[in-house]
Design goal:
single chain; alpha+beta; D-Maltodextrin-Binding Protein, domain 2; Dipeptide-binding Protein, domain 1; Dipeptide-binding Protein, domain 3; 3 domains; 16 helices; disordered N terminus
Length: 502
């Protein structure tokens, strides 16, 4: 009841906003979580990327077919040796504080991503040695080595440009008052309640921005999000429950928008980050847990069979999927045998950290039940979403159940989690042979060569099990028929350009 009241209060706030704005159009978006820091260098959450898409344009974007297309950049050109990329910037672009987006500002933004303490973009841009200003609208990224995923990295937060003036004025408080070069400018944020943005009058593509304000409301309970969409309190919601698909499709006032997600849902195992317990001591224990899980049964029970079971960082439909390593069927007896070989005391007690949310909790309960049959005593610990990331980084978990929204290049789904010392390697996994393979895969853009390297990496990772990959989601968004022009993209973001409200 309290959640419903909170959602109603948030909706009432939006109504009062609209009245005060004299019938200005307001797009109200229901989010499944409250995001972390609204700073593209420091952000690491999927829900944060949805918010960024409203106010932080990138150098490049992707289209529905995953082609890379220009956004703040007009074009790019790579050198013959692959060790430099020259980028032409779009003329006449302004940041939301009125400052120009020129080559000096672009250089500043990229170097901030590379060098800022705590930046999650460091590994994404690790191959960049330095940035040169060629002319007022041209920069050159000079690389230490060729880096095949670079362009794809610039389609996400590593390619977001921030105002140098605002950064210098705000310092470490920039994420509380962010200034980018996107269609909407930041107005306010109330933690766990709302984020408000208004149309930026000097946006470079303003002729295709038709909605005056955007209000994003974190509502963890998916049932409450859907109820608010049906009642008119929201216009668009993300992460519809798979069990609610029929309900949405049956409603004449709603539209279900779907796309296959680029990422994965898995169990990050704490192996070396202050870890204690049987999971960190032996890969056989981790393999046993994997064998205790029936992925297809999990898919049917929690998601009505709508998602895709998987065991790798890319889905079985991805060109880099390694078909030589298919999903293993559940084998409880083999799991018990592995635990016996590992010599661990039974039952194996596990701290299992799970961000709050109906589907998250349901997945954890199914895994808990299946694992119990093999000799595991899983203790589910529900925790607020943003807090879970802080505890993960601090190593305060044994299993962290989490989704990764995915990137178009397989490097974006693997290196940041599996390479020694990578910023999102929360479990402290380290394997020198795996590191070498990931580094080599970054040096070539030849698909056959890269796939051969990833095949070797897959074999290592499936043996070591630093992450137990479970399935790949179908993106499920719903909106009212009053919202026109919405298309769901595989990266799971909400692109506001071209949207209209009747």
């Amino acid at each position: 009841m309290r959640k419903v009241c909170l959602a109603a209060a948030a909706a009432a706030f939006v109504v009062s906003l609209s009245a005060a704005a004299q019938a200005e159009s307001t797009l109200r978006i229901g989010l499944a979580e409250d995001p972390d820091m609204l700073d593209p260098s420091l952000g690491r959450t999927y829900v944060g990327r949805i918010v960024f898409s409203a106010f932080c344009d990138k150098l490049f974007d992707i289209d529905e077919k995953l082609n890379i297309v220009p956004q703040l950049a007009l074009s790019h050109e790579s050198s013959a040796d692959g060790k430099a990329m020259t980028i032409k910037l779009r003329p006449g672009v302004k940041f939301q504080d009125g400052e120009p987006l020129d080559a000096e500002a672009a250089k500043f933004s990229i170097e901030r991503h590379m060098n800022m303490p705590g930046s999650f973009r460091k590994s994404e841009l690790a191959s960049v040695d330095h940035v040169e200003v060629i002319d007022p609208l041209t920069i050159k990224l000079v690389l230490k080595t060729p880096f095949a995923p670079l362009l794809s990295q610039l389609t996400d937060r590593a390619g977001m440009m921030v105002s140098p003036k605002a950064v210098k004025e705000e310092g470490d408080k920039f994420g509380l008052h962010p200034v980018c070069a996107g269609p909407y400018k930041f107005v306010e944020r109330v933690q766990q309640d709302r984020m408000v943005f208004e149309k930026f009058a000097d946006y470079w593509n303003k002729d295709n921005v038709f909605i005056d304000r955007i209000v994003l409301l974190p509502i963890v309970d998916a049932t409450v999000r859907l109820a608010n969409l049906k009642s008119g309190g929201l216009d668009l919601i993300e992460r519809v429950l798979a069990t609610d698909i029929k309900d949405v499709r049956a409603d004449p006032n709603l539209v279900l928008s779907t796309a296959p997600e680029l990422g994965y849902y898995g169990l990050t195992i704490n192996i070396g980050n202050k870890a204690k317990g049987a999971l960190s001591q032996s890969e056989k224990v981790r393999q046993a847990l994997d064998l205790a899980i029936d992925r297809e049964a999990l898919n049917q029970v929690v998601f009505n069979g709508e998602f895709t079971p998987g065991n790798q960082w890319v889905s079985p439909t991805h060109p880099y999927y390694q078909s030589a390593f298919p999903v293993q069927p559940r084998n409880v007896e083999k799991a018990k045998a592995l635990l016996k070989e590992a010599g661990v005391a039974l039952p194996v007690s596990i701290d299992y950290m799970v961000p709050k949310g109906a589907e998250n909790e349901a997945v954890a309960q199914v895994v808990q039940s299946m694992a119990a049959e093999a000799g595991f005593d899983i203790k589910i610990r529900l925790i607020e979403f943003a807090t879970s990331f802080k505890q993960a980084q601090a190593g305060e978990f044994q299993i962290f159940q989490i989704n990764w929204s995915g990137r178009i290049d397989p490097d974006g789904n693997s290196h940041v989690f599996l390479h020694t010392g990578a910023p999102q390697n929360d479990g402290g996994y380290s394997n020198p042979e795996a590191d070498k393979l990931m580094e080599e895969a970054r040096l070539t853009d030849d698909v056959a060569q890269r796939k051969a390297l990833y095949e070797k990496l897959t074999k290592i990772v499936l043996n070591d099990e630093p992450i137990i990959y479970l399935y790949h989601r179908k993106l499920l968004f719903a909106h009212t028929k009053k919202l026109e022009g919405y298309k769901q993209m595989p990266d799971g973001l909400v692109r506001v350009i071209g949207l209209k409200l009747k």
